[in-house]
DNA sequence: GTCTATAACGCGATAGAC
DNA sequence: GTCTATCGCGTTATAGAC
């Protein structure tokens, strides 16, 4: 994988981001050095600074891109219709999206405290927007009598935590397929919100 | 808080562990230096090594103690009786226990990857034991016809993730009391397992 | 039990050659 | 665009004085 002196590359930028994502997810932002990232890509540490102004930007950019991608993906997947239909779609989309990018998800949840204040604030806005997607669905359903939850905000947090938890134990070669898992979770979400 | 040269202390050991726990929870294990911990306690960095062989032991000891404490606390709180009674007790105990020690909980979930291999394996045994507590309750209830879940293992993971998620948003001065939160969560857990 | 001093090393980031 | 070399600083852990 090591690259020779003088070789050129239009794709080093993406490789840097991929290596950083993999290493941050595995060892944590603070525990990973620029030299390690460079080693994965096959360049020297100094070369990384052609692609990122600093280490912090590497973290912020991948988190922001991830959240943007999550919001856009849901926006595309939202079927509209009844709160029940939308809640099912949200559940299935959340599980599928999250299981497809375990590293990005892990970082998005674990590295918030390593963001500088301003970057943290920006990511929090995106996170809040996603939480509001679910909260609005639950609120609509509650108003229409389709759901029966004691507290909409709390139910929203509970559902997201439950769904995101899948990423901590899922293995590709595990006992259940993603589809089976999504079905089981939808069954539990449906019951939990009193639908 | 700074301590004067030559002062003695039988309580420096606990202070070191408390400071380390607070700092690890706030900034992450890898981002915290021994100098920072020493500064919080009011000693020089070298003095810490009277209380811990190294930084890694500081992390492992607090995580192991936390898990031991969790298992013991549940053991004391387990009312026995029907699966329904035990599931309610488990739900309430999990929420109360976790909200009472946010720093230790945060570390237990976030710093697993900073444990050396052998230490990680030991903590995993303790985590697994706790998961089995819930799984056994669900299994008993499923067998007795009190619960109706599609998959006992998966339901266990879902319930734990949902309950633990409280720690990410709970604030002491928030809208709901711990008691109200526990009630709402028990309502959702009860429904989710089809009781 | 805590101090100061230091060994041995790694860090992020930059400069300038090619 | 990548290299080598380096700056300035921080890291864990230890040694020996008090």
Short description:
Chains A, B: This is TetR family transcriptional regulator. Chain A has 195 residues and is an all-alpha fold.
Keywords for this structure?
homodimer, 195 residues, mainly alpha, Arc Repressor Mutant, subunit A, Tetracycline Repressor, domain 2, 2 domains, DNA-binding
Characterization of this structure:
- Two copies of one chain form a homodimer.
- Chain A is mainly alpha-helical.
- Chain A folds into two domains: 12-50, Arc Repressor Mutant, subunit A; 55-192, Orthogonal Bundle (Tetracycline Repressor, domain 2), CATH 1.10.357.
- The first copy, chain A, has helices at residues 12-27, 34-41, 55-77, 83-100, 102-110, 117-143, 152-164, 166-169, 178-192.
- In chain A, helix 1 crosses helix 2 (34-41).
- The first copy, chain A, is elongated and about 60 Å long.
- The model of chain A is unreliable at 1-6 (pLDDT under 50).
- The interface between A and B is large, with 39 and 39 residues.
- Chain A binds a DNA duplex (18 and 18 nucleotides) through loops.
Fold blueprint:
The structure is a homodimer of 195-residue chains.
Chain A: H1 12-27, H2 34-41, H3 55-77, H4 83-100, H5 102-110, H6 117-143, H7 152-164, H8 166-169, H9 178-192
Helix pairs in contact in A: 1-2, 1-5, 3-4, 3-5, 3-6, 4-6, 4-9, 6-7
Chain A binds a DNA duplex (18 and 18 nucleotides) through residues 3, 5-9, 12, 33-35, 43-47, 49-50, 54-55.
């Amino acid at each position: 994988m090591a690259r020779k002196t003088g070789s050129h590359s239009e794709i080093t930028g993406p490789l840097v981001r991929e290596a950083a994502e993999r290493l941050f997810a595995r060892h944590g932002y603070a525990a990973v050095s620029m030299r390690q990232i460079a080693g994965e890509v096959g360049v020297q540490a100094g070369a990384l600074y052609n692609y990122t102004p600093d280490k912090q930007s590497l973290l912020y950019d991948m988190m922001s891109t991830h959240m943007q991608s999550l919001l856009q993906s849901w926006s595309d997947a939202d079927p509209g219709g009844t709160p029940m239909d939308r809640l099912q779609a949200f559940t299935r989309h959340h599980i599928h999206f999250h299981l497809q990018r375990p590293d990005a998800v892990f970082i998005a949840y674990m590295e918030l405290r390593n963001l500088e204040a301003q970057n943290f604030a920006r990511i929090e806005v995106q996170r809040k927007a996603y939480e509001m997607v679910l909260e609005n669905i639950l609120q609509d359903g509650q108003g229409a009598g389709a759901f029966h939850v004691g507290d909409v905000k709390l139910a929203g947090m509970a559902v997201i935590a439950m769904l995101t938890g899948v990423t901590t134990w899922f293995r590709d070669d595990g006992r259940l397929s993603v589809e089976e898992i999504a079905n089981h979770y939808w069954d539990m979400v449906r019951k939990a919100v009193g639908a």
